[in-house]
């Protein structure tokens, strides 16, 4: 059998020149780490609101992914959608965040609060969140369609070479803004009255109510905060990937993984767990197919919970 050597390679071998080599394993690992931090930041932005909702209401909100999708889709409509105003992406994103916050507050005020006042059990509420998720997802499908879309601005950019890694200005800004928003949430929880009320309600709802905290008001603020953060995460996710009618649902499993890994009910745990999930998902592509990213992230979740059942920042609870 005759083996044909490409002309360029044969010429290089004849002249003694070095054959071009691809990036080494260390360079690829550093690039995967950077991509994982970026992906983890997006998961954290969306998961921290979901964690706060669970901490204050003990509700597992399966419709949270649809708030992510709605944020991305609303920004797309305002940016390039047919019949939209054609705004720049930045004001479009700001309006989408406001819409996400208002939608979160509307869902709490019009659906969850009346159900809680009627004494509806958590299992029933959980099933309702699944139905609400299906409803919102298919409403988005009707108006948005199945065709993937992208924003007009910041679509194709030249990557910045930062030593062995590369990152586009868009992705770098997404990481920086995500970290600043997460720090802002942490500051709010630690240094403001509403943050103290949220932590008190998450720790002991009965004692918080007995001490004079307006529980309904705090829960409403949490839902609005969660809706706004979900919309922001949706815009970031749409910038780094593509905008689809089920993008939030695809991210939902990783949100739950980050929350459980970090510790149920802990906003800080959700942040840490989300970054771990994002990094593991991207680093796994060094050895395994990209299609298995989420599987390895969930495997990391299982391994950590076997060692530390309460999660990374969770606290042990006495049962019985």
Automatic annotation (TrEMBL):
InterPro entries, alphabetized: ABC_BtuC-like (IPR037294), ABC_transp_permease (IPR001851), BCAA_transport_permease (IPR052157)
GO biological process assignments: D-alanine transmembrane transport; L-alanine transport; L-isoleucine import across plasma membrane
One GO location term (cellular component): plasma membrane
Principal subcellular localisation of the protein: membrane
Originating species: Prauserella cavernicola
Membrane topology annotation: Multi-pass membrane protein
Domain of life, source organism: Bacteria
Keywords on record: Amino-acid transport, Cell inner membrane, Cell membrane, Membrane, Transmembrane, Transmembrane helix, Transport
Protein family membership: Belongs to the binding-protein-dependent transport system permease family. LivHM subfamily.
Subcellular location per the Swiss-Prot or TrEMBL entry: Cell membrane
Protein name: Branched-chain amino acid ABC transporter permease
Upper classification of the organism: Bacteria, Bacillati, Actinomycetota, Actinomycetes, Pseudonocardiales
MF (Gene Ontology): L-isoleucine transmembrane transporter activity; L-leucine transmembrane transporter activity; L-phenylalanine transmembrane transporter activity; L-valine transmembrane transporter activity
Membrane spanning residue stretches: 37-55, 62-82, 88-107, 119-144, 172-189, 218-239, 251-279, 286-307
Pfam families to which the protein is assigned, alphabetical: BPD_transp_2
């Amino acid at each position: 059998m005759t083996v044909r050597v490409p002309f360029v390679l044969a010429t290089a071998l004849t002249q003694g020149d070095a054959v071009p080599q691809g990036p080494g394993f260390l360079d690829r690992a550093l690039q995967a780490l950077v991509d994982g931090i970026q992906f983890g930041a997006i998961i954290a932005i969306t998961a921290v609101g979901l964690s706060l909702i669970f901490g204050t209401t003990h509700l597992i909100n399966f419709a949270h992914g649809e708030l992510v999708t709605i944020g991305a889709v609303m920004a797309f409509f305002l940016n390039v959608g047919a019949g939209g105003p054609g705004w720049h992406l930045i004001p479009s994103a700001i309006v989408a965040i406001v819409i996400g916050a208002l939608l979160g507050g509307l869902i709490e005020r019009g659906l969850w609060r009346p159900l809680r006042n009627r004494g509806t059990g958590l299992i029933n509420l959980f099933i309702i969140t699944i139905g609400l998720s299906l409803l919102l997802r298919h409403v988005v499908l009707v108006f948005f369609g199945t065709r993937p879309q992208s924003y007009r601005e910041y679509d194709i950019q030249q990557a910045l070479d930062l030593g062995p890694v590369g990152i586009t200005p868009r992705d770098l800004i997404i990481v920086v803004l995500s970290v600043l928003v997460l720090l802002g949430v942490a500051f709010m929880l630690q240094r403001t009255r509403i943050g103290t009320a949220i932590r008190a309600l998450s720790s002991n709802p009965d004692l918080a109510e007995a001490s004079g905290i307006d529980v309904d008001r705090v829960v409403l603020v949490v839902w609005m905060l969660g809706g706004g953060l979900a919309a922001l995460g949706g815009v970031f996710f749409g910038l780094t990937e593509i905008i689809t009618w089920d993008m939030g649902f695809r991210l939902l499993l990783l949100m739950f993984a980050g929350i459980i890994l970090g510790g149920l009910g802990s906003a800080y745990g959700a942040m840490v767990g989300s970054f771990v999930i994002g990094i593991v998902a991207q680093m796994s592509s060094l050895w395994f197919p990209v299609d298995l990213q989420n599987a390895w992230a969930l495997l990391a979740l299982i391994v950590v919970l076997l060692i530390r059942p309460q999660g990374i920042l969770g606290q042990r609870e006495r049962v019985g």
